[in-house]
Automatic annotation (TrEMBL):
Its main location: cytoplasm. Its EC number is 2.4.2.8. Its cofactor is Mg(2+). It comes from Rufibacter radiotolerans. This is Hypoxanthine phosphoribosyltransferase. Belongs to the purine/pyrimidine phosphoribosyltransferase family.
């Protein structure tokens, strides 16, 4: 299939990871999660907005009982992290004694996950791990243990498959990187 570059606001992006590869990589991680969380009924905690598409495809591939809930955090403006993680919409249900899997579209600087994990840990869950569609190890500014990375990428700004550039690009089926 042909994937011409796309323009979003003032920037051009070129094809980087095709939908077929994304979905296959998610299947592999979902199989691992289904095995490792059998009999644990994990609670997936999807970090909005960016993770909506990943969370949906991940859930569809899970073969065990599991639940999902959503939390909305935001820290990005233009193409950079503000370093300030704001909680916009909090968690309503109790996570006490639950096996929680945070579902992130991307772990970039790591500010978001680093801010979120202690907040979750303080609520007495049985366990907390992170499943992230994309991980940018070169950009990390925190020591992080992402147990379920789907794909590692270099230090490029990417859009598509839920990820945006100033609000645009989330609807793209494939992942693109800035040119
Ligand atoms: O590792 P970090 O550098 O913290 O970056 C990762 C976070 O940045 C994005 O969220 P953003 O704040 O852009 O909100 P959005 O999901 O609504 O796009 C992304 O969805 C992650 O939550
Ligand atoms: O590379 C990125 N693209 C879109 N949103 C993001 N949030 C953190 N890193 C990124």
């Amino acid at each position: 299939m042909n994937h011409p570059p796309v323009t979003l606001h003032d920037k051009k992006f070129k094809i980087y990871i095709q939908e077929r590869k994304i979905l296959h990589s998610i299947e592999v991680v979902a199989a691992r999660l289904s095995h490792e969380y059998r009999d644990k009924c994990p609670l997936f905690l999807s970090v909005l907005n960016g993770s909506f598409m990943f969370a949906s495809d991940l859930m569809k591939e899970m073969s065990i009982d599991c639940e999902i809930s959503f939390i909305r955090l935001s820290s990005y403006s233009d193409m950079g992290s503000t370093g300030q993680v704001k909680e916009i919409m909090g968690l309503k249900e109790s996570i006490k004694y639950r096996h929680v899997v945070v579902v992130e579209d991307i772990v970039d600087t790591g500010h978001t996950v680093a801010a979120l994990l202690p907040q979750l840990q303080s609520q007495g869950p049985a366990s907390v791990e992170v499943a992230a569609l994309l991980v940018k190890p070169e950009a990390h500014e925190h020591q992080l243990d992402i147990k379920y990375p789907v794909m590692e990428i270099g230090n490029d700004f990417v859009v598509g498959y839920g990820l945006d550039y100033n609000g645009l690009g989330r609807n793209l089926r494939d992942i693109y990187k800035v040119m």
